[in-house]
Every structure is written in structure tokens, then in C-alpha cells.
Amino acid sequence: MIRSSALRTLSSTAIRACRAPALTQLGRGMRFFTSEADDSLEYDLVVVGGGPAGLSAAIRAKQLDSNLSVCVLEKGSEIGAHILSGNVFQPTALDELMPDWRQENPAWAQTPVTHDDFVYFPTAKYAIKSPFLPSAMSNHGNFIISLGDMCRWLSEKAEDTGVEIYPGFAVSEDPVIDDKGRMVAVKIRDQGVAKDGHHKSNYEPGVKIYGRQIILAEGARGSLSLEVANRYNLSAGRCPPKFSLGVKEVWKVDPEVSRPGHVTHTVGFPMDYMTYGGGFIYHMKDNLVHLGFVTGLGYTNTNRSPYMELQKYKTHEMLRGLLDGGKCVGYGARVINCGGYQALPSVAFPGGMLVGDAAGFLNVLKIKGTHTAMKTGMLAAEAAVADINDGAQPGHVSSKYEHAVKDSWVHKELYGVRNIHPAFKTGLFSGLGYGAFWLMSKGREPWTFKWSKEDAARTRKQAKCKEVAYPKPDGKLTFDLTDQLPLTGVDHEADQPSHLKIKPGMEKVPKEVSFGQYGGPEQRFCPAKVYEYDDKGNLTINAQNCIHCKTCSIKTPGHFIQWTVPEGGGGPQYGSM
């Protein structure tokens, strides 16, 4: 019998070595197909993405029916390798998924929140602490965590239930569609293709993984999720999505300034009053501080650099005092899907479901999305199991999931804070003022703010933008990007086609439009120095530097970059980020 664990080394060579018999039964609903034309596997439930949403979905499915075959496909080299988050974890969904989890006292949950501050930085020298914190923003009962560490723990729990987890398997952005237009499978990206397109000696064509239901849990701006949303027009009638880029560092600080359990969120410096963004400072045990700066990608000044905003943020007197004598030990970046209620797409489509940040279930007011990601993953699993046990065929649209989301506390949370983010459109103070009004309305106001522009369309041409002053890196507090990049552990197979592609028909856009009119904003917004222009406007794409933040697929003028998956296992190798 061919055991499903063989997928860890799955290749067409391995499959062809197993050609007799042509079809082997591996367990209920899990079958192994092979033919000269097509190598494939079949599961009851296929989950794409090994983050909190995907792992929660897999665990919940096996809790409901241990006989179902469930697999999780993760493009990172291991679970957690591509997970980055400034995370104060609200355990609501985990309490539902595993009510006894606290009894284990897991290593990732050793820093409960003990103190909460919301601070306004008017300048680089001054800080004004809010005298009170709205209950909706309180972190009482929450934990400061490394989300990557929590996901590794969740993956162990998933495997204990019988879930099969396969890191290092990058799912292609091209779904497998049947003759009725339904998504019935995903395809693993081909391995062993050289940069010039020829097949190397280790070439292996990607295997198709069929599922009676497929859950997409790729996180923000997932390439397959984006393709599916476009194919099935899932965002029809919704506002376009909004994104922010979170740039994060981890510091080892002097024990005298370490305050485990302290949480601080800031607004103001270094951001101008018209640009959405803010900072966070989270004290963990072992004298570690997780800090970062989040820049809304709807910013208008093409000269802005989210990476340099973080460097400038650290020059504030409060952070200087905290970081003096410390050492930066971690760096990374990732986009956040923060459009909220108005931008939520239809979450069920023919053959699958969108969960977590792939759909955009972030609560902007709480600055949290892990609890909602986990809950939507659980709801998707419950709907999938019910559909499968009801005899639903592959390609089925799960109305059960759509209805479950609308009836859940996730929907209630997002609807209640729907106007918070768009209220900042006219500036920081109007946003804070609306926040004060929200304390009275609690989201019950009879109106809903909307918008029509995507983030890329808000960028102004360089001739209309002022220069943005940033500090010269000193190598102690502030750093050149090239010095920080090694902290991501980024690694890709060098001899492979670039996964960052200029879209067909847009070959002239980088030089004539992006560089010629906007000054090449991708060389400033990319937090990994992937994009570089020479003085004549010729673009070089250093794809090997890519840390999979996805900003380029959102903010390039005209969306001229198509982000596709590289070979599985490539990308950042984050530890406890």
C-alpha cells in the first residue's frame, strides 16, 4: 500500500515507480491516481496554507470526522517559515477549538498582557499617553506571541488528529478547473525548471491534488486566492481591498528596560497626518521586544518607504531609550489585508472557500486577525464536513459556509468596526475623532463609508510629491536594508525562472510609467531590495531577495507585476517572528 506520508518526497518519478496498481486506496476519500498523462492525489479536504486559519480548519475537520482524509499544503520550508506578525493574540477561537489548551501551558503562550498603552507621538521627542483605553482595544486576557511558534504548535496538534501536513509544496496560482468551470484540484508547482525554461536533471512536473472541498488559507494577497477571486468575480459589488505593509524587527534589549507583558500602540510620528499608519512595541520574556511600523499602502507620496518609516520610528526618544545597548536579532515584512467588512468578497465559490486573511477578516480597531482567521477556518471546516457527509460532489458551492460566517461573531465584529479605517481617509485627527464617536455608537450608525480606488491608484506622480526625509543608517539603531535582509534567512533556488513577472503587454510600463512618471516606487516600497532601477530607468528584479510580502502585486503602477509562487521551500526562513 502506498502511504500518504510519501507526499513529503512526492515527485513524478516516485509516482511512476508505483504504477502498479494504477489506483491504490489510501483511506476513506483519499486515493492515488497515476497515468501517463496525469499524476494526482485525492483527498476529502485540501487546505492550501499552513497558517492559523488553515491549521484550525484542518484540526476542526478531523475533530468532526476522524475518517476524512485531510491534507495541508504549505509553500514554506516548514510550518512557520513564512509566518510574520506583530501579534497580541486573542484566544477566543482557540478556546472553542481546543478548550483545554491552557492546561498544556504551551511555550508560545508565556507572555500574558499585563499593561496596555495607546500613545500619540506629535514629534520625535514627545509622547502623549491616552488617559483611557476603549474596552474594544483592551488586551486583558490576551498573550504576546510569536505567531510562527503558535502555528508550529498547531501543526503538531493537527498531525495528532491525523491531518497530513506537507511543507515545501508550493501550490500554483493556476487552479485545476473541470469542464463545468468548477475548481476541483490544485497543482503543485513544477520543480527543476531552469531560469531559461529548460528542464534540469532534477525536473519533476507538479502533481495535482484533488479535493471534494478546497480551503484557501494563503493569507493576504495569496496568488491562488487572487486568481480564484478574479475568475469567479467574488468581489462584485464590494469596495476594492485595502492593504497595509507591516515591517517588523525583534530586539534583544537591556534587562533593565524589559517589561514582559507591556503592549504599546502608537500613532503620529514619523507618519504625516494624512497617511494611515502606526507603530507597535510588544515586550516579551527573555528581554525580547517585538516592534514594527505599519504603513497603509493607500499612501499618496511615491517617495515614501515603509522600511525607512520603521527606521525613522526608532529615532523617537521613547524608542531610543528602549533600544540603546540592544541588538536587532530579527527582521521581516508582510502585507495585511485591512479593507474589512466593505471589502469582504464572497467567501464560497465552486469547489472551495476563502478563510482568514485570504478573504480579509482583520478587525482593524482591535488590530487583530488571528482569532477571526482561526474562527473562519473552523466554520469552513464545519461546512465542508457537513457538505461531504451530505454527499456533495467536488465543485460544490458551500452556502453553509457563507451563512455560517454571516451568523458568526466574526461578522458581528467586522460590521461593528466597518467605518473605523475609512474614517482616516481625511487624516489622523478625523479618524481619531470618528473613533471617539464610535465609543458612543458602538458601530450602530446607520451609514457605511465606502471607497472606489485601489491602493495603487492613490499614488501620485513624482512631480507632485515632496521628498521624504529619512535618517542615515548608523548601524546601531537604524540600518541599511541590505544589512537587515540576512536576518530573514531568505533563500531561493537560484536557477529557476523569476516568480516576479511583468504581465504580458506591460513590458514598457516599468520604464515609461513607473520610473518615468512615479520615480520607480517599487524600489522604495519593497522591504527586500528586490526592485532596482538604473539612472536610465532600466529595471532589475532581484527575485532571490523576495521575502513574499506581496506588496509589489498591490502597489506597482497599473499592477504590472504578477506575483507567482517560486519552487516550494523558497522564501524567508522566519524563526520566532
Automatic annotation (TrEMBL):
Cofactor binding notes: Binds 1 [4Fe-4S] cluster.
Family matches, as Gene3D superfamilies: 3.30.70.20, 3.30.9.90, FAD/NAD(P)-binding domain
Cofactor(s) of this protein: FAD; [4Fe-4S] cluster
Subcellular location, principal: mitochondrion
Chemical reaction(s) catalysed: a ubiquinone + reduced [electron-transfer flavoprotein] = a ubiquinol + oxidized [electron-transfer flavoprotein] + H(+)
One Pfam family of this chain: Fer4_ETF_QO
InterPro entries cross-referenced by the UniProt entry: 4Fe4S_Fe-S-bd, ETF-QO, ETF-QO/FixC_UQ-bd, ETF-QO/FixX_C, FAD/NAD-bd_sf
Keywords, comma-separated and alphabetical: Electron transport, FAD, Flavoprotein, Iron, Iron-sulfur, Membrane, Metal-binding, Mitochondrion, Mitochondrion inner membrane, Oxidoreductase, Transit peptide, Transport, Ubiquinone
Compartments it resides in: Mitochondrion inner membrane
EC nos: 1.5.5.1
Enzyme class: oxidoreductase
Domain 4Fe-4S ferredoxin-type: 537-566
Annotated GO MF terms: 4 iron, 4 sulfur cluster binding; electron-transferring-flavoprotein dehydrogenase activity; metal ion binding
Superkingdom of origin: Eukaryota
Reported function: Accepts electrons from ETF and reduces ubiquinone.
Family note: Belongs to the ETF-QO/FixC family.
Name of the protein in its database record: Electron transfer flavoprotein-ubiquinone oxidoreductase
